[in-house]
Amino acid sequence: MFVLLDQGPAVAVLVLATICLGTFPVAFNWADLHGRKPAHTFLDFSAAFVLAALPCAISLSNTGPRIPIMPGLWEQMTQQNEFVVACACAAGFFLMLGSMSLQFGMALTGMAICLPFQIAVSLSVGIGIDWFMDHRLGKAAWVFPGLMCFSVATIFGTLAHVERQKCLKQKKDKTAVRQLVGLEDVMEKPLAAGMMKSVELSPTSSTGEGGVTPPRKRLHERTASDTADVILDLESPGKASRRSSSLRPLGAQVMQDTNAFEQDEPSTPKHTPMRVQYQRRGINVDGSKPLTGLIVLSIGGFCFGMLTPLFFIATSALPTTDYWRILPEGVPPLTVYNAYFYMALTFGFTAWGLNLALLYVPLCNGEESSLAEYAQDHRGRIVSVASGLACGVGMAFQFLGGLAGGYRVAEVVKMYPLLTAAWGLLLFTEFRGCGRRASYLLGAMCGTYVLGVGLLAAARNISLVE
Asked: Do residues 88 and 310 touch, judged by C-beta distance below 8 A?
C-alpha cells in the first residue's frame, strides 16, 4: 500500500484535495443556470467520479511495500470481511444521496450557503457518532463545543438564507411593477428614455390626427379602466390590436417586445461571465419556500454524516469495536483505499440506477427526458465530467494525505466548504445587493464553522499527546 512518509508532501496533497473538493460543486450550479436537466448532469458526474476513484483506489492499494496489517485489494477480497465491506458499500450509498441533495439544495439556496450548512450538519452527526464509538478521537471538553459551533453555524446559515430570499422577492416585485406600469413611470434612466424616444419617432408607432403622437397618461393620471386595459394587454398581447393604443403605456410595449425576444435568446451575462440568468433553469425553483431548501440540505447533511461512522467501522473495526466481534480473529479491517474502492463502486451503481429512473420521473416538477435525449445532450457535459474527476481525485488525495499527516493535518480538508462559498460569491455574485444584514449573517456562519473545525483539531491533538 502506498503511504507518504513526510508531512510536507502530505500537506501539499491535502491542499490539492481541498481545492478539488471545494471546486467541483461549481459544475452543479453552472449546469442548473444553463438549463441542463439535473439527471443528465448527475449521470455524467457519477460516471466520471467512478472512472477517477477506482483507478486511484486500485493503484494506491497495490503500490508500495506490503504491510501485513494493511493488505492489498485483491488479498482482502478473499478474506471473511463481509460486514465491513457492507459498511463501505452503505457509505457509498449515503454518499450518493448526499451528493444529489447537494445538487438540488444548491439550486434552492445557492452555493454560498449550501455546502457550509450541509457539512456543518454532517460533522455534527458524524463526529458525534464517531466519538461515542471511540472516545479516543478527542476530549469531550473540546469535541462538544466544536459540535455546538456547527449547530450555531447552521442557525446563522438559516437566517442568511431567509434574508437573501426576502431580497430576491423584492427584486422580483420591482421587476413585475416595471412590466406593469411601463418603463417611463419607474425608470428615469437614459437607456429607457432613448428606447421610448426611438419608438415615438418610428413610423409604425401609433399616432393621432395629423401624425402627432397623443400624450400618454402618467401613473397618477390613469383611471381604473386604463389600468385594467394595461393588465389585459400584458396578459393577452394578441388582443392588443383590437383596442386603442392610447390606453397602453409605451414602456409596457417595449418591455413586452423585449420579453418576446428573450424567449428565443437567453439574456446576456451581468457583472461576471458566470452570472447568466436564463428564462428556464434546469431545476424548477419557482414557488419554493425558504424552508424547502433547508430541509433538503439537512437531509443531505445527515447522509454525509452517516458516511463518516460507516467508513470508520469499515476501516477501524478491530481497534474500536473488538467487543462486537465484527471480524474473525486475525482478519484485519479494510484499508482506506480498499474501502474507497467499494464505496465508489456502490456510488456509481446506485447513482446510475436512480438517475436513469429520474429521467422519466423527474423531481421538482421538471421535464421528462429519456436515455436517447441524454446521449444527445452534449451541452455542459465537459463541465460535469470535469466535476466528477475533481471529486474522485480529491477524495483519493484526502485519504492519501490523511494517512501521512494524521488527524491534526487532515482537518485542513474540512475547510473546503468555505472555498465553495467563495466561488458562489465571486463567480455567481449570489449575495450582491442583498444588504449588510445578509452579509453579516453569512460571515457569522463561516466564522463559527471555522471555529468548530479548530476545536475539533485541538481536541484530537490533545488526545494524541496524552
From this structure: yes
- Residue spans per domain, the chain: 7-173+281-465
Assign 117 to helix, strand or coil.
helix
| Residue 223 CA: distances (Å) to CA of 206, 228, 230, 420 | 21, 9, 11, 52
Q: Which amino acid is at 393?
A: V
Of 111, 40, 32, nearest in space to 381 by CA: 40
Which of 10, 26, 9 lies closest to 424, judged by CA?
26
The pLDDT of residue 284: 79
Q: Judge contact between 318 and 333, C-beta under 8 A.
A: yes
Report the SS3 class of residue 70: strand
The secondary structure of 161-211 as a DSSP string is HHHHHHHHHHHHHHHHHHHHH-HHHH---HHHHHHHHHHHHSTTS---GGG
Regions of the chain short of the pLDDT cut 50: 183-193, 195-213, 215-279, 318-322, 463-466
Q: What distance in Å separates the CA atoms of residue 439 and residue 447, rounded to the nearest whole number?
A: 12
User: What contacts 120, CB < 8 A, 6 or more positions away?
Assistant: 150, 151, 153, 154, 157, 301, 417, 449, 452
| pLDDT score of 391 | 94
The pTM of the full predicted model, rounded to 2 decimals, is: 0.75
Report the C-alpha gap between 395 and 56 in whole angstroms: 10
Burial group, residue 159, by CB count within 10 angstroms (0-12, 13-18, 19+): middle
| Three-state secondary-structure class, residue 370 | coil
